[in-house]
Every structure is written in structure tokens, then in C-alpha cells.
Amino acid sequence: MTSDTPRQLIACAVLATALALLPIVAPNPYYLDLATKACLAAVVCIGLNLLSGYAGQLSLGHAAFFGVGAYASAILCAKVGITPVVAMLAGCLISAGIAYVMARTVLRLKGHYLAMATLAFGVIISIVLNREVALTGGPDGMSVPRFNLFGYRTTGVWAGYGLAAVALVLAVRTAIVFVNSRVGRALRAIGDSEVAAEGLGIDIARYKTGVFVISAVFASVAGSIFAHADRFVSPAEAGFMRSVEFVAMIVIGGLGSVAGSIVGATLLTLLPQLLAGFDHYRHFLTGLILILIMIFMPAGIVPTLLASGRALHDRYRPFGRSARSVTGRTSEG
Amino acid sequence: MAPLLDIHAVGVSFGGVRALDGVSFSTEAGRIFSIIGPNGAGKTTLFNVISGAYPAQQGKVVIAGRDMTTAPPSARAALGLQRTFQNLQIFGTMTALENVMVGGHLRQRTGFPSALLGLPSVAAESRAMRRRATELLDLFDLAGLGGAVAGELAYGQQKRLEIARALACEPRILLLDEPAAGLNPSETEDLANVIRRLAGMGIAVVLVEHDMRLVMAISDELLVLNFGRELARGTPAEVSSNPAVIEAYLGVEVD
Amino acid sequence: MVDFLQFLLSGITRGSIYGLVGVGFALIFRSSHAINFAQGEFVMIGGMATVFFLTLGLPLVLAAAGAVVAAALIGALLQRLAIAQAKNASVLTIIIITIGAGMMLRGAAEIVMGRNFHSYPAFSGELPVDLLGAKMQSQSLWVVAALVLVTIGIHFFFARTRLGKAVEATFSNRFAATVIGINVPRILIVCFMLSAAIGALGGVVMTPITLTHFELGVPLALKGFCAAIVGGLTSPFGAIIGGLILGLSEAFAGGYISPTYQEAVAFVIIIAMLIFRPQGLFGRRAVERV
């Protein structure tokens, strides 16, 4: 509903304010580092959710695009001496190119084929990062220079956090406008019924390719910022388990929900830290929580909460039917 | 002048079974053309061949003077062809209003770059489309339901929504696949008026329908299919007096 | 010639391992159209539980049998307590539940067995078998034997038993299966138990070669999943053949071309497969109805 758009843009402003206040409320490098990671995971998830939650395509290799962005920034800045912004753009171009070629070859097939192709491709990328030791430092990873913009060097965790927060706000705004545009509606239509969408003149292959490329670029940007924020990259960031984590984040937060992407990313980033006190029981408990959320909120946290909020709202307005916002959308991936 | 829709000797086989065999017809703007026949006669297959869901193995499909026999559905839609589905294909998780807005896909311009940048033109286009979609919802008696999730609407409402969606891109040819199925008599009466009005707007309506009373009342021309072949063609009066039709199909209905 | 034979033998060993892991994916995909991301953990449990039972002083046969039974029980619990609880859930929700289950099982293994590698002696001694100059570990024969046993067992199960036929019916049409009185929820449990047991059996026989570790399941599951995809994802036999193809390709590519990218071979095959034969070797192309 586009009547919701201004409301969503207000939410966007609230998010920006909250992100800006965080360093003042919690001026602690450890918290800032976690917040940086959560913001960047959220950027990846917002892009991935456009692909899975709206267009209904599953990707099991999105961490590879994160890795491409991270290593493009790392290698181009550290070994070639290119300025970070340009390196980040180069990473985007490489990710977009790979995504385009993959989509063209695989997306014409229906079913879980994209999932399998992204899985295979993602693992290959992470193997390459592990093996090309001369270029990437292999399994030990490599260090990355600081981010700088037009010669202004940035310092400390603050800078990394600032970049991540700006990226998140931009990603949220982009996604909201995108979803409520003709293109976004076409993608959601594809997710609901390909036959009907095609009959309305929507070029399905083109739209799926487009959204796949976009989601790859979101992941790539997040990867580049991560490289500079952490000043270090390792192949584990591009690994299969990271890809699976991203999928888990959007399903838990809520498919087809921008807010859900942020909630899922934040929760799964913080959960292992919150459970750090349990030491050996950490993995076990994380898995258990994942299962419980899926059993009790199969549509994801945000859509479930919105639905119960709506039900409460409707109860006091028996004749008024509240409009559904895009963030209330649920669908199969 | 070439006819708006010209189907020429199309044939389709499914694993040795002839689903369609040398079927031809053509129709013009403003006419209501109906395809009837018993179950399995090939009516829906014919619709699928016209809309491009699968290609004709023999023959030609010419839309607005262009040979579209092998073109994908989206290219046919671009020439002004729209359809509804026998087993509804509503966008179930989107609102009714959004369904109709997607219907106007081809009448809008926004591409990936401007959608990503969120240019002012994007919101302006959506606003204009929303106005048109709201009008269409009103026209189909769905006023006030724009915000409702389409998948949660009643069956009759979904059927009307599907027609409204198809109209959103101002089609020149509209294929309706059993629009009266599951409707009660008064809803069917409303539907007949809607179809007449569409033809009055200059749309070439092609109808597959089992409700003989409706078909006979509104059609300009009829095609009777039996086992994938043409059994008869003509005005309702001609068809209903055709002995072959009476024997094969209408006998039961006319009495 | 000796090289060739050596690569062949090591390829068959690898391939048998992948096949044993892949069968479980195919069985579960066949019954519920979900990818079970906890499949690798069943394999890990096979090895870990055997180690655990051996330290309790049980003889090997009992320890191995105990491990397989334990895995089957865990499979049943996973289906019953987690997957069956998420009613009307999408396939994606089920996939996430299996991911959570995988984490829990890894976590449980970590709690009980720690973060070390574990193993136990090969079943027939550590002396390698000599075959025309090529050598192979005697344990490899046990792995191959397990694969043969599983192949025959599955064939018998689907061709001869009522339960197997019910699984087939559920696969082709779940609704129709319910109508003719098949207890579909029970079938789903059976499939999970079977997958878990086969995975665990794989773990039991491969541990003397691969060792076991609480995180061993992930890389194994990836290869097994690839094997299942090559086989068409719905066919247990396809997964076995797929596993052998992957294992042999890896062994020959590693031997004749370069060991650097040996690990990538399986995934390159998957991509080639998706481009040239997307339905897999033994899968049927889905026919779309409008």
C-alpha cells in the first residue's frame, strides 16, 4: 500500500535517529562492533528478502557476494592501492556480473534450481578464497586498510559503525520505495502467480534477473564495508554456513518484510553473543531458539506481530478494515 | 483490414492425443465470441494456445495483424491480449488494489534504475495508477475492498477482481475462461451486463463458458468444439438449429 | 596403471561416502519436498555415538548398532517434535527448522564429546589391502559394503514392503495417499528415521577413515546434497550413483589435474548439470499445468 509509504519513510527516519543515538547511549567499542555487524547483516538480508520474500526465489549462496565485495575491497585497496569507494564499486560490478550470468543460465528453470546453483557457486567462491593464498592470504585471511573518502581518513570503530549505519538507512529507504513501485509490484506478482504475471505482460526472466542482481549488489556493498570496518577479511565470511544464516535471518524476521530483515539480522547476530555465558551450550540453545520461533511464528516474527496487532486493532473498529502494509506480507519462498 | 484476432488451423497434441485439430476462427473489436463444447473438447487448450501458455504445434495465431504463434505470453499482452483463468490466478498476498495496479503493468514506465533511486516520477506514477485502479474496483462493485488482501476475498469477489485486473491495461482482446462458474443467477446476470459493456467499449471478448443461457444471450458468434475439432460455427440462432450440434451437445440443454 | 587404479579405489571410497550421505537427502526430499540440513549431523552422530558407546565398554557391533538406533530415534523425534509441530508451514520454514536441528545436534555433540576429533580402530585391522599394486585401507571395503547393503535394502524396501509402497504413494500424491487410508504423518516419520539410520550407518563405517568431530556434518552434508542433486534429488538410487560420480571425478581430477581445486569438482559438476541437464540424471522433468 502506497498510502503507507510516508509512514514507512517516517519509520526510516526513526531508524536513522536510533542508529545515530546508539553510539551516545552505548559508547562501548564492543557494542558498536556488534551493531556494525548487525547493520551489515541487515543490509544483506534486505536485498536477499527482495529476492526470496518478494520474487519467491531462494539463494543458498548469498554470503559469496558478501565475500566478493569484501575481498574486492581488501585486495584492490591493499594490493593495488585503489581508493576504497572505487574498490567498493568494482566489487559491486563483479558481483552484479556474476549474478547476471547465473540468473541468465539458471532462472529460466522453475523450482529450486536457483538455490542449487547459488549453493554450488557460493562454495566454489569460498574454495577459491581459501586456495588463492598469494592473493587472498588463504584461510588465514588478510588485513584491509582503513576506509577513506576524498582523502579524509576515518578512524576507529566509530567510522566502521557510521558507514554501516548509513548503508542500512539507504538500504531501507531504497527497498521501501522499490517495493512500492511498478517494479516491486511486478516482483510480488511473480512471487504469487507466475502464470498470471506473465499474462499481464511482465517479463519474468528479466525481472527475476534484475532482482537477483540487486540482491547481489546489496550483499557486495555490505561486504566491502565489513572489510573496512573489521580491517580484516577471512574466507569464513563467504562460506556456506554464512549463506544459510542469511536465509535463516529473513525467514525468522519475516519473508517479504523490510522490518523483518532487520529484526532477523539483529537477532541472529546478537543471539550467539547473548548466549556467550552458556559457553558449550551456545550452539544447542541457538538451534533450539531457531526451531521454537519457526514452530510458533512460521510466518516470521514481524508479520506475526503485525497480524496480531491488526487483529487487536480491528477488534475495536469492527467496520474498519485496516490496510495491510508491505511489511505485513507473508509468502512462501 | 485484418481481424483483431485470427486463429488459423491450430493443432496441439499431448502425447498422441489430439487436443486441438485444425481449429480456425477470427473476431473483431466490439464482438462477443464464445467457444462452447463438452468437457475435454479443447476449449481451455485453445485459450492457452491463444494466450501463449503453450505454443500451437500447427497453425498460426495472429494478433492485431502480427504473427504471434511462438511469442511468449508477455509479448502477446503487449499487443493488447488479456485473459482470466478458470482456476483463479489472483495475487493472493497482495491487496485487491495492488492486484489491479499490477494489471496496469504495461501502461506504466518505471524500470529498475528509477525504482531503485526512488525518483519522484515513481511515486507520481503509482499515485496515478492507484486512482485508475480504484475506479476499476468501483466499476466491479469492489469499492472499499481495495485494502483487503486479495486471497481473503470471497470467490465471487475474486472473480470480479480478476476481470478488473485484466482491464487495467486497457486490453483490445479479452479472453474470459468460464467467468460464470460458481456464480449464482443474479451474479451471472450482472456478469452478462459487464461483458456487454466491455464489448460496447470496443473490446473483442472471447468467452469459454458452460452456462448456455448466458452464452446464447450475449454472444455475437459461437464456435462449438468437439474432440478438438470444429463442430459448428455461427450466430446463436444458427448454432442452436444445427442438427449436428443438437445431436452431439445441445440436445440435452435445449429440449 | 597403478596410478589409475589408485585413483579409482580412492574415488570409489569417497563416492561411497557421498552416496551414503546423499541417500538421506533424497529420501526426505521425496517424502516432504524439503531439504534436510541436519542430514550431515546424522552422519556425525553415527560416528560420535559409536565412540561414546565404545567408551562405555560395549563391543563394536553393539556400539555401532546402538549408534544407528540412536540416530533413527533422533530422526523420529526431529520429525515428530519439530517439523510436524509447524503446521501448514512452507517448505522454507521446514528447511529452517532442520537448520536449527542441525545446530542443536552439533551443540549436543559438543556438550557430550567436546571439540576434539574422535575415532576408533578400523574393523579389520589397519593393514592396507593390496590390489595390483594399488593400496586401499581395509576400512574402505566396509564403506563400500555398507553402500551395497543400503542399495539392496532400499530396493527391497520400495519393491517388496507395504511400507515402501506407501512411501511411494505418498510421494506421488499426498492427498490421494490420505484418501486411500495411508497414515501420511507416520510415513514422514519413517522417512526421517530411515534417512537418519542410513546416515548414521555411513558415519559408523567412515569414522576410522575420516575421523569424527562435532562440525564434521556440514562439509559432508554439502557433498551428499550435491550427490543427491546429480541423481535428481528425488531418487535414492540416483543419489548413490551421483555420489560415486562425484567421488570418482574428485579422485581423478585431484590425481591427474591438480589437488588444489579437488574440493571444487563436485560443485562445478552441479553447475554444469544445471545448465545441461537440470532434472538430474534420474529425476523426471516436472510438467507444468496451467
Structural notes for this entry:
The complex is a heterotrimer of chains A (333), B (255) and C (290). Chain A is mostly helical. In chain A, 73% of the residues lie in helices and 2% in strands. Chain A has a two-stranded antiparallel sheet. Chain A has a two-stranded antiparallel ribbon with strand order 2-3. Chain A is globular. Chain B has 255 residues and is α/β, with parallel strands linked by helices. Chain B has 2 domains: 1-80 and 171-255, P-loop containing nucleotide triphosphate hydrolases (Rossmann fold, 3-Layer(aba) Sandwich), CATH 3.40.50; 94-169, no CATH class. A 6-stranded mixed beta sheet of chain B has the order 6-7-8-3-9-10, sandwiched between helices. In chain B, strand 7 (173-177), helix 7 and strand 8 (204-208) form a beta-alpha-beta unit. Chain B is globular, with a radius of gyration of 19 Å. Chain C is mostly helical. Chain C has one domain: ABC transporter involved in vitamin B12 uptake, BtuC (Orthogonal Bundle), CATH 1.10.3470. In chain C, 72% of the residues lie in helices and 2% in strands. Chain A binds chain B through residues 1-2, 5, 173-174, 177-178, 180-186, 188-189, 191-193, 195-204, 210, 214, 256, 321-324, 329-331, and chain B through 51, 53, 72-74, 77-78, 82-83, 85, 89-95, 97-98, 101-103, 105-106, 108-112, 114-116, 118, 122-123, 125-127, 129-130, 147-149, 165-166, 169. Chain A: Its main location: membrane. Chain A: Keywords: Cell membrane, Membrane, Transmembrane, Transmembrane helix. Chain A: This is Branched-chain amino acid ABC transporter permease. Chain A: It is a multi-pass membrane protein.
